[in-house]
Amino acid sequence: MLILHPTPVGRADDVETWVAAARGVLAERHRAGFRAAGAHEVTVVGGPPDGRSFGARLREFVAAHRPAGLVVLGSGAVPLATAADLHRFVDAAAAPARVALANNRFSADVIAVASAAALADLPDLATDNALPRWLAEVAGYAVSDLRGRWRLGFDIDGPLELVLLGRRPGLPRPPDGVAQRAVDRLGAIRAVVRDPRCEIVVAGRLSAANLAWLERSTMSRTRALIEERGFRTRAAGQRPARSSLGLVLDRDGPDALGARLEELGDAAIIDSRVLLAHRFGADERGWPPPGDRFASDLLLHERIADEWLRRLTRSAAEAPIPVALGGHSLVGPGLRLALDGRRSWT
Fold first, then answer.
1. What is the pLDDT along the chain (346 residues), one digit of tens a residue?
2. Calpha distance 75→107 (Å, rounded)
3. Residue 126 to residue 147: CA distance in whole angstroms
4. DSSP calls for 186-253
């Protein structure tokens, strides 16, 4: 087992510290859970980003430990996994053939790799998302996944996912007041989806399965804009990330987000990472720093240094309709948590 636990770079604010502390708790839970599931050795590697790619880190680990089989994940991955889920990954890593099991082969947060010596040839993949594709297309692995289990797609990428999880034993509470704005907007969105006269807008990397769940489980009408699924795993030479909503903001400016969304519906859930990829490129290293992105997820525009993201976030926070901003989990498996009023920090 290899658990990668990123920590903030330099001096972190209270939100970054909260997220890092929560991931640290989850890393230790994963350590204990995977050991109970039969993993022989569990290693947690922590520290701030140092410029090395995910591929380089994985090659170095395989060279040092020479595992027969390997399960690799980030410390914020699969916080809702059950003991049976963990057993599935350990059993896959112990298989005698070239097989791999991911939570989602198109965007992996956790992946088990049997015959792990093949990872010595892994290129400098930027993130774990692209590992299943390399295993299948280059290394000759039979790759399967568990994407039908929505709970395994939920990942702690930032503070909003912790808000969506709500109170969980052992997880640190948010710093005083920082989550309230997002909690209030989520509450207002829940009221909208219970009203058959209303319409909710969902934009970003929404899957067909989550769209079906949304339409089946809410009373409001749904307006969905599905785009840029898989932009993190796009191969070289493919077109750059582009967003229809991003093109509107190119024309009207980020301050227009709230007004444009009001024209489309009575509440909105927006995958802001798609807008960031449209604006700054798909490589996350060119985006505003995590502190800015985390503040945006909580609608704390006054904390954001990047002008474009600050204006976008202020427009969402002050919109005439309730708007939530976040990452893939928000418009993916997190929809079930976002629209379930039983889970809340208040």
1. 999 998 888 788 999 999 999 999 999 999 999 999 999 999 999 988 787 889 999 999 999 999 999 999 999 999 999 999 999 999 999 999 999 999 999 889 999 999 999 999 999 998 888 899 999 999 999 999 999 999 999 999 999 999 999 888 899 999 999 999 999 999 999 999 999 999 999 999 999 999 999 999 999 999 999 998 877 666 666 788 899 999 999 999 999 999 999 999 999 999 999 999 999 998 888 999 999 999 999 999 999 999 999 999 999 999 999 999 999 999 999 999 999 755 444 3
2. 16
3. 22
4. HHHHHHHHT-TT-EEEEEES--HHHHHHHHHH-SSEEEEEE--TTGGGPPTTSPPP--HHHHHHHHH-
